[in-house]
Amino acid sequence: MTDPNVVTPNLTKTLGFSTAPVPSNLYYSAEQFELERERIFRRAWLKIGRVEQIPNAGDFFVKDIDMFSASLIVSRAKNGSVHAMHNVCSHRGNQVVHEREGNSFKFTCRYHRWTFLNTGELLGVPDEHSFFDLDKKKCGLTPVTVDVWEGWIFVNFQSKPEVSLKQFLGPFAEAFKDVAYPYPESAIVLKGEFNANWKTVADAFSEAYHLSSIHPKTFGPLYAGKDNPFSRPLSAEIYGPHRSMSTWLDTTYQTPASSKVELWANAPGETVTGTRKQGQRNALVEHPAINPTKSESWASDAKWVFPNWHIQISANLFWSHEFWPLSATRTAWEGRFYVPKPTSVRERIRLEYFTAKMSDGMLEDLSNIESTQRGMASGAKPVLMLQDGEFLIRHSLDQVVKWTSAATVRDALDLA
Question: Exposed end of the chain (fewer CB within 10 Å): N or C?
Answer without folding.
Answer: C
